[in-house]
Amino acid sequence: MTQEQIQAAFTLISQDDTLIHGVLKALNVSRKRSNYEDLYQEGLLAFVDAYQHFPGNPETEQHALMVYCFQAVKWTLLMYFRQMNQYNQHIGFVDRQDDNNDAVLDYLDQLSSPITSAEANLLHQECFEQLYQACTPREQRFLVLRYFYNAELKEIAADLNVTRRTANNIKFKIQKKFSAVLIE
User: Fold this and answer.
1) H helices of the chain, where?
2) Could you give the 3-state DSSP secondary structure of residue 142?
3) What are the transmembrane regions (predicted)?
4) Which end of the chain, N or C, is surrounded by fewer C-beta atoms within 10 Å?
């Protein structure tokens, strides 16, 4: 990347930085978040890198450039979040007092992370298989919908033909079983 390209990228983004803020907003990152400025800086660097790799002419195809850069910044920040989750990976246990505690199932969400090592993937697969075997057929269907199809709770409830409250109860039963699997 030449110095002129870097300068052009920084000039373009400094004139209108709504692209970076838009990506952060699309990722549900609040400006009140303590590391918002750090994420913004990561986005700036990703924009400059995307500007360099843009396959067309950035001066004549500005709309295509912005679409390309938006996706590149978004993917870069998602990778950043995945790396941070990898560093901060904790296995939580269910606190039945708090209905919004998804710590155990959040751990399962990391099963499909492309950043994890081969050893970690093997461990995650073994945990998932043990949990799957411990579940009833309906709970197994819940797991498949949640972790292989990324279905939301309301979608799972519709597929299982139950209310959202019942789907939530199924989730809590799975969490309890997963805590038992982890303790064994």
Assistant:
1) 3-15, 18-26, 36-53, 62-87, 103-109, 118-134, 137-148, 153-160, 164-183
2) helix
3) none
4) C
DSSP 8-state secondary structure symbol assigned to residue 110: G
What's CA 137's distance to the chain center, in Å? Answer: 27
Q: What is the DSSP letter of 97?
A: T
pTM of the complete model = 0.46
CB 124 within 8 A of CB 107: no
Structure tokens at 56: 């067309």
Quickly tell me which residue has 């303590």 as its tokens: 34
Chain segment 119-144, per-residue pLDDT in tens = 566 667 777 788 889 999 999 999 88
Q: Please answer whether residues 118 and 77 qualify as being in contact, where contact means their C-beta atoms are separated by less than 8 angstroms.
A: no
Which domains occur in the chain, in start order? Answer: 3-90 (1.10.1740), 103-182 (1.10.10)
Output the CA–CA distances (angstroms, integers) from residue 80 to 102, 103, 132, in the order listed.
Answer: 22, 20, 30
Other Cβ atoms less than 10 A from the Cβ of 133: the count is 10
